[in-house]
Amino acid sequence: xxxxxxxxxxxxxxxxxxxxxxxxxxxxxxxxxxxxxxxxxxxxxxxxxxxxxxxxxxxxxxxxxxxxxxxxxxxxxxxxxxxxxxxxxxxxxxxxxxxxxxxxxxxxxxxxxxxxxxxxxxxxxxxxxxxxxxxxxxxxxxxxxxxx
Length: 148
Hints:
Layout: H1 3-32, H2 34-57, H3 61-66, H4 76-94, H5 96-117, H6 129-145
């Protein structure tokens, strides 16, 4: 399988995992509090990623290397924290599908802006009408998923 094929496969897997994550974090947040669920998930992720780093790189140098990068590249972790907090809060209040629909619509809008203007050091990617139509349709779908 090519690198792009693996990337597509992982993207599909992550999308499926995202839906499961909303359902699981919603339950954990209801049981131990939103702050508790967020703290536990973050700790669990930190421990798991530490172990992956040690196994994959046999070194902790990536931690030191990260602090030599532009400060804004380190904010990705905070974005992840915001996403986990949001799904933990929103999931039980509006449902898994609407939470994901709105989240994904927002991601597509921001992704299109990042691509269009080459933000954060990304390559510029043209924004053609099919991409805009897809984003608009997903936004409509996310809005409709809020209707009872």
